Amino acid sequence: METKNKVSLITGASRGIGRAIAIRLAREGSHVAINYVKNKDKAEKVAREAEALGVKVRIYRADVSDFKSVQSMVEQVMTDFGRIDILVNNAGIMPEHHSILDIPVEEWSRVIKINLTGYFNVTKAVVPYMIKNNSGKIINIASVAGKMGGTVGPHYAASKAGIIGMTFSLAQELLKYNITVNAIAPGPIETELITNLPEELKNRIKKRVPMGRFGKPEEVAEAVIFLIKCDYVTGEVIDVNGGYYMD
C-alpha cells in the first residue's frame, strides 16, 4: 500500500514512538489522525509539525481502555476523513518495576486494560470500516518484553505478549478482507518511558544492547513504513532492538 493520500490513525501519538510515526507518515503524504489522552498541548504540537508537511491532520482525545470513548473517536475520524486505511496501535504505559510478589492486583489490571485491551478496543472499532473498503494495514507496537520477559515486570511483559498473540490471530482472520496485521517489537527506545527510569536501571538495560545504545523513535517509524508498503507481509513481528533479543 502506498501512503500518499491515505488516512492513518495513530494512538498515543502525542509523544515518543507515536509522535515519530505520525510525523513520518505525514512526510510520506498520509493524512493523520492523532490520538491522545492527557496532553493536548503536545498533541497539538505534533499536529502542527505534521500539517507543515502538507497533509490534513486532526487530534482526538480518547482513552483507549474505554471502548465507548474509542468508538466515539473512530466515528469522528470517519466523519472528518471519510476512511481509515492505516491503524497504528501504540498507546500504552510502562509501569514501575515490580516483582510478582509486589505487584498490586489493581496495577496488573490497569496495565492489561491499557496496553492490551486498548489495542483490542481500537482495532474492533476500526476493522468494520476496513472490511467495508476491502483494504487495510494494522501495525501493533509491542515490545521485546513480549518475547523474552524483561526488567519492567511480568504485568508489562504479559500485556506485550498478548499483543503479539492477538496480531497472529487477527492476521489469519482478516487476510480474506485484504487487511494485513503485523507487530513491531522495539527494544529499549529513547523516549520519556526510558529516560524517566532510575539511572541504575537505564545503565543496566543499555549494557544488554549489543549495539551499545538505545534506539530512536524514528527507527521504529521506519519499520512501520516498511510494513505499510510491503503487501506480502502479514502475521509477523519485526524486531527493532539493536540485537537485544540475541543477548
Shape: globular
CA radius of gyration is 17 Å
Q: Within the CATH hierarchy, at the fold level, what is the topology? A: Rossmann fold
State the domain count. 1
**Helix share bin:** 40-55%
Biggest sheet: strands, sense, closure? 7 strands, parallel
The H-and-E topology, N to C, reads as: EHEHEHEHEHHEHHHE
Strand order in the largest sheet: 3-2-1-4-5-6-7
Number of strands: 7
Q: What is the CATH domain class?
A: Alpha Beta
- Measured distance between first and last alpha carbons: 34 Å
CATH architecture designation: 3-Layer(aba) Sandwich
Poorly predicted segments: none
Taking all residues together, what is the mean pLDDT? 94
User: Could you name the CATH homologous superfamily?
Assistant: NAD(P)-binding Rossmann-like Domain
Give the helix tally: 9
Global structural class = alpha/beta
User: Which band does the percent of strand residues land in?
Assistant: 5-15%
Give a written overview of the molecule:
The protein has one domain (7-246): Rossmann fold (3-Layer(aba) Sandwich), CATH 3.40.50. Helix content is 48%, strand content 15%. It contains 9 helices and 7 strands, in the order βαβαβαβαβααβαααβ. The protein has a 7-stranded parallel β-sheet, sandwiched between helices. It is globular, with a radius of gyration of 17 Å.
In short:
The chain is α/β, with parallel strands linked by helices and 247 residues long.
Topology:
Blueprint (H helix, E strand, L loop, with lengths): L6 E4 L5 H12 L3 E6 L3 H12 L5 E5 L5 H15 L4 E4 L15 H29 L2 E6 L3 H4 L5 H21 L4 E8 L5 H4 L3 H9 L9 H13 L7 E4 L7
Parallel strand pairs: 1-2, 1-4, 2-3, 4-5, 5-6, 6-7
Helix pairs in contact: 1-2, 1-9, 3-4, 4-6
